[in-house]
Write a structure and sequence with these properties.
Elements lengths: L8 H7 L1 E3 L8 E4 L1 H10 L7 E4 L5 H5 L6 E6 L12 E5 L4 H14 L6 E6 L5 E10 L3 E8 L3 H5 L2 E5 L4 H10 L17 H12 L4 H5 L3 E12 L2 E4 L3 E5 L15 H4 L4 E4 L8 H11 L6 E4 L5 E2 L2 E4 L11 E4 L3 H11 L5 E4 L9 H14 L5 E3 L6 E2 L18 E5 L2 H13 L4 E6 L8 H9 L6 E6 L5 H11 L5 E5 L13 H5 L2 H12 L2 E2 L3 H11 L10 E5 L2 H14 L8 H9 L12 E2 L10 H10 L6 E7 L2 H4 L6 H13 L4 E7 L6 H14 L3 E2 L2 H19 L5
Parallel strand pairs: 13-14, 13-17, 14-16, 17-18, 18-19, 21-22, 21-23, 23-24, 24-25, 26-27, 26-28, 28-29, 29-30
Antiparallel strand pairs: 1-2, 2-12, 3-6, 4-5, 4-6, 7-8, 7-10, 8-9, 10-11, 10-12, 15-16, 20-22
Length: 725
């Protein structure tokens, strides 16, 4: 007699085996393989014909209607990786299956495992072995993995991830783009697999209305390994499902806030400035006055009438006309008291103060009070433990001497110190900001909702993020999906090595660490993921200028064959392609005097240096791009040559770049100044000033430039495709 298979979620939870959890996560329920396969079959997916029995004596009857060769598997508590403990045997016949089960039971008992039953199935003739898995990530919810399966799963680790739910475009891109995709085309006489069936398999599992939506937040780990793909379809040979006994609580409804008043308040009050001029709040008063505040700026102080020339009042209620933005820079306990008094009276409160959850149990208790202080009110709280907001157009500032020219780049950062670097160093590289917002502990205003708001902000054209940990990852993914094809996004994640340290029992779980999940998020949303602050700022600087140029193809040009080869290698690492020049254009370049012992194929070697005419680079580029469009040009120059073979410093280089800039060529131009460290400081400063003034993207390395070019092309493709992956 065969065992009935569970179908509903409640039956699956009841019929599974509890699995000890090594961390503090939810109780894990391991669903028997035959029940998982019954669920797959109910959703129209193919699994081998088979039967499950509780008693080995029933196997002969159960196997009678199956075609040999047969596969025998044991199931029960502790049998997660069956192959590792002898719980799987292949190539059996009807005559040998019962004896094999008896031997298997003995071997399992020796390993301390008792088989609760056996599954006998028809053995599949074979195909391309794949792994399809779903894992509940702590930050972003469910992620889907497709890779090479079977013995190749861990040995080769060839896979790719996407965040769920999958659209059809997501599934198709996963099938066509995962590293093992070429094997699906057929090899050594085999037929290509049915790619459409594989797409359908993925969508049935993790599409909008797939199995994943039925299991919801109870799903911890799901894995089919191997999945056999052939020309006739897709079959799941093995299936593993681990559920959480209790699902995650439903997410609270999204709170929609217009953060315009955060970036451009009509009035500001600073609490924490001292009459002695030494308080942290005094720095903010100075920064605000430097940013242009002459009225609408007040201080909160119990006794003073003025502080640093700014009117002071004993409480928020006493400020004439009210306050739009309250900045709190007092010790943590006093900050909580002040927020409790101001909640509901001020639209935005920014708590600069530290001393909350980052300081242990006592600080966490204060943070809990701080959270509750604004609950149920119209007040939104930024922080605590954050530097705040920089917005030139809104006269928001957190440091003296910040650039005053507004731009179109907005950045959300979890680090206050890094926000200062973003403003100062980015400004020196020519980045002009609309807003830079640090969120600190983010107990109320989160990075996800700020990004969601920036998607529709007319003053923002490029979005950057520095994040260390995500508490509302699903909302962030929703927001990032809305940016696709609309606004380019650059993400610098920090602390990846510390994330994802929870226990997992599937191949999917072990291979879906935080760096890969972030790559999956970026890929699904068309964002660019970078590893360093330098790449982050370089890419933001480049993305400020997105003329209607081609979506792909890069032209590399400059002096020195070896340097051009290194530039080509950097482009290759970043995933951008050098498009060969047409023969007609090569002939044109030779007519201009290029090509004697050098390349005019792409890279194009041009002797740009201290003795070359100022128009040389511009003339050459114009001769190329007027007939063969390029999305981007990477032009590299050797700064050291201007000192080894010239006496005018970098003045000739600036003249050359100015001449190119004046032409207004229909390309995105990236200039790599090699060996800039040998320049005289005053010359380097003059070059940087020129680049910042003209907003000419200037890079110190080929990899920086290639990363930025790849980001521009990625966004251009998304925009051309209407935001689709």
């Amino acid at each position: 007699m065969t065992v009935a298979s569970q179908s509903s979620l409640a039956e699956l939870l009841e019929g599974g085996s509890p699995h000890p959890q090594q961390d503090a996560g939810p109780q894990r329920i391991v669903v028997p393989e035959h029940a998982v396969k019954a669920l797959l079959r109910q959703h129209g997916l193919d699994v081998p014909a088979g039967h499950a029995v509780q008693d080995a004596a029933q196997l002969a009857e159960a196997a009678a209607g199956l075609r040999a060769p047969l596969v025998l598997k044991a199931y029960g508590q502790g049998l997660i990786h069956k192959s590792d403990v002898g719980g799987v045997q292949l190539g059996l016949t009807h005559d040998t299956v019962t004896e094999a089960a008896a031997d298997m039971a003995v071997g399992l008992r020796t390993a301390g495992i008792t088989a609760e039953g056996f599954l006998v199935e028809e053995q599949h003739p074979g195909g391309v072995e794949l792994i399809v898995g779903v894992l509940r990530d702590a930050a972003f919810g469910h992620v889907v993995m497709l890779g090479l399966g079977g013995v190749a799963t861990e040995l080769l680790d060839v896979n790719a991830l996407r965040v769920a739910p999958l659209s059809r475009a997501d599934a198709e891109h996963l099938v066509d783009g995962f590293p093992g995709a070429p094997l699906l085309n057929g090899a050594r006489g085999t037929e290509p697999v049915d790619r459409g069936a594989l797409v359908t398999f993925l969508l049935t599992l993790a599409g909008e209305d797939g199995l994943l939506s039925q299991l919801g937040s109870h799903l911890l780990e799901f894995e089919c390994n191997p999945v056999l793909a052939t020309a006739d379809g897709v079959t799941a040979l093995d299936a593993r499902l681990i559920l959480a006994a209790a699902g995650l609580p439903a997410s609270a409804p999204h709170q929609q806030t217009d953060f315009s008043g955060l970036a451009a308040p009509r009035s500001i009050a600073v609490a924490g400035a001292s009459t002695r001029g030494t308080g942290f709040g005094n720095r903010f008063l100075a920064a605000y006055k430097d940013a242009g505040w002459t009225d609408g700026l007040t201080a909160i102080h119990p006794s003073a009438e003025t502080i640093d020339g700014v009117p002071a009042y004993p409480s928020i209620s006493a400020v004439p006309g009210g306050v739009d933005y309250l900045l709190v820079a007092v010790p943590a306990a006093a900050a909580v008291d002040l927020v409790e008094q101001a909640a509901g009276k001020v639209p935005f409160i920014h708590v600069v103060s530290g001393g909350f959850r980052e300081m242990g149990e006592a600080g966490a208790a204060l943070e809990e009070r701080l959270m509750k202080a604004t609950e149920g009110t119209s007040t939104r709280l930024l922080g605590p433990n954050c530097i705040g907001v920089y917005s030139p157009a809104g006269r928001q500032a957190f440091a003296l001497g910040s650039p005053r020219e507004p731009g179109t780049v907005s950045v959300v950062s979890q680090s206050g110190g890094l926000s200062g670097d973003v403003v100062s160093v980015g400004g020196s590289r020519g980045v002009r900001y609309s807003k830079v917002i640090s969120v600190g502990n983010a107990i109320d205003v989160t990075p996800a909702e700020l990004v969601d708001w920036l998607v529709d902000d007319p003053q923002t054209e490029v979005i950057g993020m520095y994040v260390e940990g995500v508490t509302d990852g699903r909302r962030l993914v929703e927001a990032l999906r809305r940016t696709s094809g609309r606004k380019p996004v650059v993400i610098l994640p920090g602390g990846l090595s510390r994330q994802g340290a929870h226990a997992v029992s599937s191949h999917t779980g072990s291979m879906a660490g935080a760096p890969r999940v972030w790559r999956a998020v970026a890929e699904a949303c068309g964002a660019t993921l970078v590893d360093t602050l330098e790449d982050f700022l370089a890419t933001l600087a480049y993305l400020q200028h997105l003329p209607d140029a081609a979506t792909d193809g890069v032209l590399v040009t400059g002096l020195g064959g070896g340097a051009s080869v290194l530039a080509t290698d950097a482009c290759d690492r970043a995933g951008v392609t050098l498009t060969p020049l047409t023969e007609e254009i090569r002939q044109r370049l030779r007519a201009l005097g290029h090509g004697a012992g050098t390349s005019v194929a792409n890279p194009v070697e041009i002797p740009v240096g201290p003795a070359s005419p100022a128009d040389l680079l511009g003339d050459t580029l114009e001769a190329i791009v007027r007939d063969q469009p390029f999305g981007d040009v990477l032009a590299h120059v050797n700064v050291a040559a201007y000192y080894s073979y010239g006496t005018a410093g970098l003045a000739p280089l600036i003249d050359t770049l100015a001449a190119v800039h004046a032409r207004g060529l229909p390309v995105r131009l990236a200039v790599v100044a090699r060996n800039l460290n040998v320049a005289r400081p005053e010359d380097a400063a003059r070059l940087a000033e020129f680049a910042a003034h003209t907003r000419l993207p200037l890079f110190r390395s080929f990899d920086e430039a290639a990363t930025a070019i790849a980001a521009a092309q990625r966004f251009a493709r998304r925009r051309a495709e209407g935001g689709r992956p």
